[in-house]
Amino acid sequence: MDHQPRDNETYQAGRLVQWALRVRARPIQDVEYSSLINRYLDNSQFRDTVRELTDGLGLKILEVGELGMIVGPQLDSAFAMPASAFHPTRATAEERLLDGLVQVGIAATIFPRSRDLNEDATYARPAVTIEEIEQTLRVICDHYEEQAKSQPDPETAEHEKGLKEAWRIYQGRSFVGATKDGRSSRGSTHRMIERNLDRLTELGCFVKDNNGSGARYQPTFRYQVQVKELAAAVVFQRIQACLASNVKSPEGGA
To answer: Which of 14, 41, 68, 241 is deepest in the core (most CB within 10 A)?
Structure first.
């Protein structure tokens, strides 16, 4: 029998965090979730309790509003997802490098310019396709290839070493590389991008729409908030810089 007082503030804070961890939950769909969001926004004492609880769990609050509470893991959190989680089987070091590059490519396709990150996260970004992400990644690879030609042995910061290794591997892969039964091979860039997008869809970061012309992936509010939070990373800034000359605004500017 549950003797926990339902109006206990710590208990209610825990309920809110539990809702935040349910990636497909929406306040508009559940009265309790909506009520807890309003309590967080209106009650400073409850807000402090929720913040202490999330901090103790190794989580950080990224956004709270009518679309829900979005949390992300701190570096040492038990909720942090290992790179191997994107593979159904044990991944090699090379595959983990490529997954990292693909994740950067997905984010850069959705937010190709720095100013895109300044837009309200409630503004829905356009859906993307596997082909569009492939194009972004090829632009990134071409950029690093040209840089390698002009600076054959540049000094590389620690945070970019993995990226520089990854683009060389990615560049050597084919987009489709079909198998005998007509499917794209496991090592093709098409399969890599598709696997990462499908995993992100399972995590509530995208909504997949299979139509006659191929799958499109619509980024969710959750994903947009998470990218805006992580976009301060130097690597992502460098990627956006290398894409800037290849992206034209509606007014004709870069």
So the answer is: 68
Amino acid at 75: L
Write out the two tokens for 14: 């825990």
Residue 179 covered by a domain? yes
The C-alpha atoms of residue 159 and residue 178 are separated, in whole angstroms, by: 34
Query: pLDDT tens digit string along 210-246?
Result: 876 679 999 999 999 998 887 666 677 777 777 776 6
Highest mean pLDDT among 15-29, 115-129, 200-214, 228-242: 15-29
Same domain, 165 and 238: yes
Task: List the alpha helices (DSSP H) in 77-220.
Answer: 93-110, 130-150, 158-171, 189-202
Other C-beta atoms lying within 10 Å of the C-beta of residue 32: 12
Q: Taking CA 23 as the corner, what is the angle to CA 18 and CA 27, rounded to the nearest 5 degrees?
A: 70
- Of 73, 93, 114, the one marking the end of a domain is 73
Q: Are residues 144 and 33 in the same domain?
A: no
Tokens 């990462």, residue located: 196
